[in-house]
Amino acid sequence: MKVLIALFVVVFVDVVASQCICNSMKWAKCDGSPCQCTLQFTDEIQQPLDCTKLVPMCYLMKAEMYRAKKNLSTRSIGGKPVETAFVDNDGIYDPECENDGKFKAVQCNNTDVCWCVNSAGVRRSDKGDKSIKCEPVETYWVRLELKHKATDVPLDADKLKTGIQNALLQRYKLDKEFVKTVEYDKDGRIIVVDVKKKMEDRVTDLSLMAYYLEKDVKVLPLFHDDKQKFEVSVAGGNVTMENILVYYVDEKAPTFTMQKLTGGIIAVIVVVSLIVLAGLLVLFFIARRQKAQYSKAQAREMETMS
Ligand SMILES: *[C@@H]1O[C@H](CO)[C@@H](O)[C@H](O)[C@H]1NC(C)=O
Ligand SMILES: *[C@@H]1O[C@H](CO)[C@@H](O)[C@H](O)[C@H]1NC(C)=O
Ligand SMILES: *[C@@H]1O[C@H](CO)[C@@H](O)[C@H](O)[C@H]1NC(C)=O
To answer: Domain Thyroglobulin type-1, which positions (predicted)?
Structure first.
């Protein structure tokens, strides 16, 4: 009996403690009894909040700026899983395949411009010429960022993982053990699925599932029965997806250089140079005009003197 009461107390305390949340602001930190929630503005300043109301917009913007500065996502979930993750910005090309169907490490799309790809066929280097050297690199982790269509009833976040595991197994024969984590943001309707294998695993090919799933969500299913959509069933209801973003994480970091940044810096240099040049021209003309006026005045003085 004592044990039961103790258990009851523990559970009760737990429930009460878990009630200390800020309904109107998910980034708020809440603590103590009575429950007090604060929002981080700077490393030192925490703004107390009234979570029964919407948070003033000025506070929200301050918090958002702070989070951006700290590289904290302004969304609660998703984004790059690690700094070295990357997405496919190039789209489709005409690949060279190995005899077993794997991607060759160098791809040129039938041109003289070549680049290195990972085992998922996604570019992981800058573009170069035909002499580019590439080694085979395995993608061991893909993060699927899915946005689901609106549902009548809210999704049960706890049942989502099982639903996703079942769907990926049934449709793409992906073993459940590879689906490591499933996170859910119900406001954004975002489901973040991390699919990961052991680094030394050379049997499982995660890119297959990612490719089929991307087509399923964005275009049309590749299966013969293409009426059958990718669906996740969660607690009696079915959810379909409206968008997907795939992040790839390779065993070795990709070798992209900061080409975009360099482009940006060049643009800045050009603009600054133009502004400086314009300024110099203006100064030059002002000086010339002043000189002209000065000599005119001098000429007039000379006239009056003579
Ligand atoms: C945030 O990320 C950028 C590049 O992604 C990096 O240069 C910067 O140092 C990071 N800042 C912090 C505070 O981690
Ligand atoms: C490959 O070439 C085709 C046409 O030649 C082009 O449409 C496509 O964008 C190219 N893909 C890449 C990734 O360069
Ligand atoms: C969900 O989809 C499955 C087949 O994919 C179907 O059998 C089931 O009836 C659907 N459930 C609902 C509630 O639509």
So the answer is: 55-134
